């Protein structure tokens, strides 16, 4: 099996239907399997998948285990030499999977690959290629000074480039890399697990690449739409976990408390903004 395509579903019936239609319509000569790890959906998703996508391997977890754990369950059952984590609220271009596999086969030094991501309005998602968050760029973003932050990479969006991290909406990783660095960290319930995986891959000597030759469409926040406030809390908790794991040991206790306080202030600021916005935002 060339690649195992893994989707986590939690009450995203219409999103995942569109996503699976695009996956099974893909044009590729490579072999693939599709595994869906369902976190106890109650919106008819499970029945729809069974009826309309019988070729998909459905894993019923019966409760919301979070993104990382649900993916890990599917990874443990997958047989592909490559693993693709694909968000249920995406639609892949017909050649995206084929190009992604071809790219990985041609670049054995690459451990993780992400693709070009288009938002619903057709504009490219700049977050598809990122540097790791750190105290300085996080501070600038916190106080509305994003243009001075180096979090997003400024090379042309159609240029292949090595990055610190790609996003979990479409993340291809080699099985050999997982065997080396381990599965997703299940301490991350939602958000942050992709950054953490890329950190560990680079730490182990693998390249993380942004490859715009493959393209998907991302409708964003599929599973998060119904629970925006809880989602905001989980996103900021992911920031705390990432900082604690990868930066806290290099700084004093006092400095770390300022960082955690800043994350908490930002969390409540985003919560306050969402009270007055029709279109919710997580970050």
From TrEMBL:
What's the protein called, per UniProt? Glycosyltransferase 2-like domain-containing protein
Span of the signal peptide? none
Pfam families, alphabetized: Glycos_transf_2 (PF00535)
- Species of the source: Candidatus Doudnabacteria bacterium RIFCSPHIGHO2_01_FULL_50_11
Q: Which domain of life is it from?
A: Bacteria
- Describe the location of the Glycosyltransferase 2-like domain by residue ranges: 4-181
């Amino acid at each position: 099996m060339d690649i195992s395509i893994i989707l986590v579903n939690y009450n995203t019936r219409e999103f995942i239907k569109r996503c699976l239609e695009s996956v099974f319509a893909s044009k590729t000569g490579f072999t693939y399997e599709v595994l869906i790890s369902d976190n106890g959906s109650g919106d008819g998703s499970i029945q729809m998948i069974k009826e309309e996508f019988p070729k998909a391997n459905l894993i019923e977890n019966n409760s919301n285990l979070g993104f990382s754990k649900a993916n890990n369950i599917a990874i443990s059952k997958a047989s592909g030499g490559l693993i693709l984590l694909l968000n249920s609220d995406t639609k892949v271009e017909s050649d995206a999977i084929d190009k992604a596999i071809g790219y990985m086969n041609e670049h054995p030094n690459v451990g993780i690959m992400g693709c070009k991501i288009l938002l619903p309005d057709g504009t490219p998602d700049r977050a598809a290629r990122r540097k790791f968050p750190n105290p300085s760029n996080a501070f600038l973003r916190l106080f509305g000074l994003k243009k001075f932050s180096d979090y997003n990479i400024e090379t042309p969006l159609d240029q292949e480039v090595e990055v610190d991290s790609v996003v979990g909406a479409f993340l291809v990783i080699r099985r050999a890399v997982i065997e080396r660095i381990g599965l997703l960290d299940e301490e991350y319930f939602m958000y942050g697990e992709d950054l953490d995986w890329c950190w560990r891959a680079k730490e182990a000597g693998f390249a993380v690449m942004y490859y715009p030759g493959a393209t998907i469409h991302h409708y964003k926040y599929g599973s998060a739409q119904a629970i925006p406030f809880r989602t905001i809390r989980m996103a900021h908790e992911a920031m705390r976990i990432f900082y604690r794991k990868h930066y806290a040991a290099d700084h004093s206790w006092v400095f770390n408390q300022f960082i955690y306080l800043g994350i908490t202030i930002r969390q409540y600021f985003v919560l306050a903004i969402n009270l007055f916005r029709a279109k919710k935002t997580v970050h």
